Amino acid sequence: MFTLYAVAPVWWLIVSATKNQRDMLHTNGLWFADFHLVDNIRTVLEYDHGIFFRWVLNSLLYAGVGAAVCTVISLAAGYSLSRFEFRGRALGMGLVIGSFLIPGAMLTLPLYLLFSQIGLVDTVWAVLIPAFVSPFSVYLAKVYTDTSVPEEIIEAARLDGAGELRIFFQIVTKLMTTGGATVFVLSFVSNWNGFFLPLTMLRGESKWPLSLGLFFWNSKRNELGIDLTSLVLTGSLLAIIPLAIFMVAMQHYWRTGVTLGSVK
């Protein structure tokens, strides 16, 4: 039942993306009619001078760069909270836990006021900078470090004269491949599907991600009387293809990372 609940919307999306406007309204919503997927894709790619390509590139920028930087920061912060002794560590961990309990939507207005004061509103940095920091990813990295990075290896590296940066980048990151892949995937998917923050920060269409662009097409249909339903559905189908490819590609890191943290 849970599998059906998860798969049914995707099946409906695939079926609907193959129909024209008439078939979408007058045929079974869960089964195919005349096949118009190629025509719908062509219309999506050509509509409004190919703005869809721009939205795809923007989404890849926000999701890819944001997730990569977030992964490095989260692994470094989690490793520090787990393996270093310093004053205020318990308080810092408490603040991290408390931070990811706050809904992200509640931080959008303070972020907007802050970025408007420093002139970052309506720039890509207004979306990227918040994506760099994820308290939940820091907590996840800290927990993973506790179980997968033996202190004996760290102490042996220090005795051999390795510096802290070398230990982190050459030893710790390799032991935390699975944890880093998990953090990267969670951040990538979250940024790819991000909507409320770009809606608040960005004004021009050229900077919008896919989620905001498809929402604009849907609202444009309602406001101007232009029916863009097939464009929205086909664009939504195209938007999940990069995520599917990304998830399949990242499976390698989970399979190979399971044994990297083991100690003989």
The CATH topology corresponds to MetI-like fold
Count every beta strand, where a strand is a DSSP E run of 2 or more residues: 0
DSSP strand (E) fraction?
A: under 5%
CATH level-four homologous superfamily name: MetI-like
CATH architecture: Orthogonal Bundle
Mean pLDDT: 88
Shape: elongated
At the first level of CATH, what is the class? Answer: Mainly Alpha
Counting structural domains, the number is 1
Poorly predicted runs are: 257-264
Give the structural class: mainly alpha
Element pattern in H and E: HHHHHHHHHHHHHH
Measured as a percent range, the helix fraction is over 70%
Q: How far is the first residue's CA from the last residue's CA? A: 42 Å
- Helices, by number, come to 14
**What profile does the largest beta sheet have?**
none
Word description of this protein:
With 264 residues, the protein is mostly helical. The chain has one domain: Orthogonal Bundle (MetI-like fold). It is built from 14 helices and no strands. Helix 13 packs antiparallel against helix 14.
Features:
single chain, 264 residues, mainly alpha, MetI-like fold, 14 helices, 74% helix, disordered C terminus
How is this structure best summarized?
With 264 residues, the chain is an all-alpha fold. The protein has one domain: Orthogonal Bundle (MetI-like fold), CATH 1.10.3720. Helix 4 runs antiparallel to helix 11.
